[in-house]
Amino acid sequence: MLPAGGKATAPPPVRPSSLLWPVLVVAVAALCVRLGFWQISRLHEKQALNTGLRSELAGRPIPLDEISAPVDSLRGRKLEMRGRFDERRQILLAGRAHDGAPGVDVVTPLLLGNGTHAVLVDRGWLYAPDAATARPRDYPEPGEREVTGLADPLRRGAGGPSLRAMSGDSVQLLSARWLDLDSLAPRFPYALAPVVLRELPGHGVPEKPLRRPPRPLDEFMHVSYAIQWFTFAAILLGGSAAVARSRRRGAGPAVPGRID
């Protein structure tokens, strides 16, 4: 049937605003999917790191004098060295918590060979109410011994963290938030290796400071986040499709014009 006037009614023009919403929904859903796959890639990275950590902890340590690789390649490697601690010069890493208790990590140089070179060793955690000061001399080391731990390259930067010098009991204590080779090297009368060794607990290792084995990285977090992002994408696409169908049903069929 023809509308009044005998001319066919042209379909209503498509408004640009009606296309904006579906394009926006698809774009946001695609972003959510991309973020979901990014979380999966982060999961695989952490799984690889945790596998490497378990392998290092279970494997035999590498004597330090056998390593000639670049410093960055030492990260996370299990090293072993023999020396004596220079307990006259120690570093307290402030703001280190353990099981909710405030404290510090005690870092002491381990003198190697004839004493012209040293490696900084993180000997572990001590309780400190202010999370900044402690008395590491209360926990002396038993002379020369072997030290086994995981290596971590020292930071290097312009000035590094602020250092606070504290003296007591003929011990030079330096308090800092992290270790920076450029800041620390001028304060020691021997050369420092560009790595810090985080000592592992084991036979013959004193109970205090508390040596803490490294914790595996959280993998489940990335699984949870990936599921969330994929769920958001499904809700956006499914919900938008349902709304579009509902609107089409509510509009109903067009009523043609009548000829009197």
Question: How many structural domains does the protein architecture include?
Answer: 2
Estimated structural class: alpha/beta
Q: How far from one another are the termini? A: 12 Å
Rg on CA atoms, Å: 32 Å
Annotation field: number of helices: 3
- Which stretches of 5+ consecutive residues score pLDDT under 50? none
Strand % is 25-35%
Membrane topology: Multi-pass membrane protein
Family: Belongs to the SURF1 family.
Keywords: Cell membrane, Membrane, Transmembrane, Transmembrane helix
Organism: Eiseniibacteriota bacterium
Could you please describe the fold and organization of this structure?
The chain has 260 residues and is of the alpha/beta class. It folds into two domains: 31-60 and 218-250; 68-199, no CATH class. Helices cover 30% and strands 25% of the residues. It has helices at 16-58, 181-184, 220-251, and strands at residues 62-63, 78-85, 89-93, 103-112, 117-127, 145-153, 164-168, 171-176, 191-199. The chain has a five-stranded mixed beta barrel with strand order 2-4-5-9-6. A hairpin with a 4-residue loop joins strand 4 (103-112) and strand 5 (117-127). Helix 1 (16-58) runs antiparallel to helix 3. The radius of gyration is 32 Å and the shape is elongated. The termini are close together. The mean pLDDT is 80. Keywords: Cell membrane, Membrane, Transmembrane, Transmembrane helix. InterPro entries: Surf1/Shy1 (IPR002994), Surf1/Surf4 (IPR045214). It is a multi-pass membrane protein. Residues 136-147 have a biased composition (Basic and acidic residues). Residues 136-155 are annotated as: Disordered.
